[in-house]
Amino acid sequence: MGIYSSAIYWIMQNHPLLYRQRTGELIRLNTTSYPIGVLPDIEHNVFEESLEPGDWLLMYSDGIVEAENEHRDQFGDDRLKSCLMAHINHSPVEVKKAIFNEVTELMGEGPQKDDMTVVVIKL
After folding, report:
1. pLDDT surpassing 50 at residue 30
2. Which CA distances in Å does 8 have to 21, 22, 30, 32, 49?
3. DSSP summary character for residue 35
4. What is the DSSP annotation of 45-93?
5. Could you give phi then psi for residue 69, rounded to 5 degrees?
6. Above pLDDT 90, what percent of the chain?
């Protein structure tokens, strides 16, 4: 995100989520490229989305949505969206903590099988 810009540019990420404060809409941002480094010499599409004051951006690794319990039930996109919306009036730090708490609760005593990264930004 440029310091003098009200837009974000990205190449590939697990479909970042954008919450529009003005409209209350939750948008999954588009990605159509392969992850960086998977294929040599591939050109990546660069995406752009305008941002407004009060908007939220949620970026996360696939280890969040693919976290599962002993019954192989995954945390999934719907739980992630619900968690974000349930805590949208809190700080970004509290939203991140809530996501990790809910993922950990779902996993129970099961092992963590992938990295779990969450970045929450409020403009």
Report:
1. yes
2. 16, 17, 12, 16, 6
3. P
4. --EEEE--TT-EEEEE-HHHHT-B-TT--B-HHHHHHHHHHHTTTS-HH
5. -100, -175
6. 59
| Cβ proximity of 96 and 118 under 8 Å | yes
Residue-range domains of the chain with CATH: 7-122 (3.60.40.10)
Instruction: Please count the residues of the chain.
Output: 123
Buried b (16+ CB within 10 A) or exposed e, 36-72: eeeeeeeeeeebebebeeebbbbbbeebbbebbeeee
Task: Give me the mean pLDDT over the 45-56 stretch.
Answer: 86
- Confidence band for 2, pLDDT divided at 50, 70 and 90: very low
Q: Are 51 and 97 in contact (CB under 8 A)?
A: no
